[in-house]
């Protein structure tokens, strides 16, 4: 028979999200704590920050191929920011600052070293969420574009009738 879920039991179940694992990087010089289980709410936040960063890049007038390439390094950096204690400022959502941090982490080998220690099934949760978000945005944008076209067509038909009548 199933038990009743109490607030105490709920809090106890949620403790798994506080579990961290200590790893050592750069030949054991530094220790880094990584989350063992990723919180869905943190994944959602990460996806929104990533989408905002991509949108910010699209809105820049002077975007070049290098900046577009640099955004590819943002996702691993955002994952490291959300699920480790690496010194990546949480309040820093400026894309240029994040790209600089991403390059430093990458060039020092920290991105690869820490990222490879994150639980694969947890990374998959993030990528699945981003893919689902992308598909949903694509669907919404597609529906919006169709609605706009239909609206234009209806307006054109109404104007034509007014001109004839």
- Gyration radius from CA atoms, angstroms: 23 Å
Helix content: 55-70%
- DSSP summary, beta strand count: 2
Indicate the mean pLDDT.
81
Give the termini separation.
74 Å
Q: What global shape is seen?
A: flat
Helix/strand/pairing category: mainly alpha
What's the order of the H and E elements? HEEHHHHHH
Beta-strand fraction estimate: 5-15%
Major sheet attributes: 2 strands, antiparallel
Instruction: Note the total helix count.
Output: 7
- Spatial strand sequence of the major β-sheet: 1-2
Model regions low in confidence, pLDDT < 50 over at least 5 residues: none
* Number of separate structural domains: 1
Explain the overall architecture.
The chain is mainly alpha-helical. The chain has one domain (18-155). Helices cover 66% and strands 7% of the residues. It has seven helices and two strands, in the order αββαααααα. It has helices at 7-14, 40-59, 65-71, 74-83, 95-107, 110-115, 120-164, and strands spanning 20-25, 30-35. The protein has a two-stranded antiparallel ribbon with strand order 1-2. A hairpin with a 4-residue loop joins strand 1 and strand 2. Helix 2 (40-59) runs antiparallel to helix 4, helix 2 (40-59) crosses helix 7 (120-164) and helix 4 (74-83) packs across helix 5.
């Amino acid at each position: 028979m199933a038990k009743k879920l109490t607030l105490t039991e709920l809090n106890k179940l949620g403790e798994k999200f506080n579990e961290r694992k200590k790893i050592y990087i750069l030949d054991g010089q530094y220790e880094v704590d990584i989350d063992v289980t990723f919180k869905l709410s943190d994944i959602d936040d990460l996806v929104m920050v990533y989408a905002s960063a991509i949108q910010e890049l699209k809105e820049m007038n002077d975007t070049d191929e290098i900046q577009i390439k640099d955004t590819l390094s943002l996702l691993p950096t955002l994952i490291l920011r959300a699920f480790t204690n690496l010194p990546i400022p949480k309040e820093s959502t400026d894309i240029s600052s994040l790209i600089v941090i991403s390059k430093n982490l990458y060039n020092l080998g920290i991105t690869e070293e820490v990222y490879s220690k994150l639980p694969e099934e947890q990374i998959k949760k993030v990528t699945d969420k981003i893919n689902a978000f992308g598909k949903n945005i694509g669907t919404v944008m597609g529906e919006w574009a169709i609605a706009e076209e239909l609206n234009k067509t209806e307006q054109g038909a109404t104007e034509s009738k007014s001109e004839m009548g």
